[in-house]
Amino acid sequence: MKVKNNFVKIQNGNKTYVRKNMILDTYITRLFKAQMDLQHSTTQLASCYIKFDTPIENVQYDTVLTQDDFDIMLIDSGTTEIIGSKKFEQTTERNKNNVKINYLFSNEGLFYANEEYLYSNDFARFDGRKITAIGFGFGNTVFAFLDTSNMNIIVNGNEGINITREDILQSDGICYGIDFPLHLVNDIAYYDFSVTQTHTLIKKAQLYSVGFGNTLGLMEEEYLIGDVQVARDDNSITFDLSRAKKVGHYPSENLHLGFYPTMDNSKYLVFKYRLYQYATDDQEFYQYTDEYYTMSMPNENFGNLEIKLKLERLWLNGYFWMEWKYSCNSKQFEWNAEYHQ
Questions:
Q1: Which alpha helices (DSSP H) does the chain contain, by range?
Q2: Does the pLDDT value for residue 23 go beyond 70?
Q3: What's the rounded Cα separation, in Å, for the pair 83 and 85?
Q4: Do 177 and 294 touch, CB atoms closer than 8 A?
Q5: 273-331: per-residue pLDDT in tens?
Q6: 8 Å CB contact between 319 and 339
């Protein structure tokens, strides 16, 4: 899985500043758990935090930041519109392996400062103050951080402020059975949104099984996650599988035609996801459906396999990367994902 912040754009008056932010460990952990567990802390990015005058110093990737570290909080424009269903349709681009998301924060609606909600005309009280840091997250929890202390951004209170960001969440696998990799945006995509007499429901996806297949999207060997999982921590899960190489003939080894069309042995490593319904008005309501989709990626390894999916940050050529690592015996096949600073 790849998660990339394309840019953060700050527009204040007639001035525009563009940077890339750092993504904190808090967000990495949440992204991993959101694909594995029904009950998980949200990965929805709905708040923008602004710090004035003094820098927030010594922020590392394992630093835990909260709303209290900043002075004001802007709320993502449109998140309250039909609990976000239209917003997702209007602010994303989607295909078989990625989702691109655009966020907009401004002082045009309500914003929060000094333990009270303020209106756009109240923003003028911050005129002339220097923006030293910007954060992004949900509620009291910060997921991403941008140090702006050396950018000389001075608030023009009468003209307000707009802060936009664009993120891409991408899988190296290819979807089959669904339009886009829902598990990457479980808490953002209001997928199959519906209202019943008792609940407001959306569908999310959970990792269900792992296996191998010869045809894109279809499993010939399938193992439930709970049957083959041998280890898990905050950002990785490990499976042990035994897979024998077999060269068979198709459609039958008993035919005597002078030649045998031979089926390749399991070209793909396949992960299957199961959909479940979640009630946005009741965090205890979860209900599995009989709907599934798969993510397929090339694989030609056999024997006693240790398959490990891990999200981790690497330093490479000036960029921070997060990667899914697939380990197989002594070989490693890396599915890379970038975190640009």
A1: 25-36, 85-91, 225-228
A2: yes
A3: 6
A4: yes
A5: 999 999 877 767 889 999 999 999 888 777 788 888 776 654 433 333 334 444 444 33
A6: yes
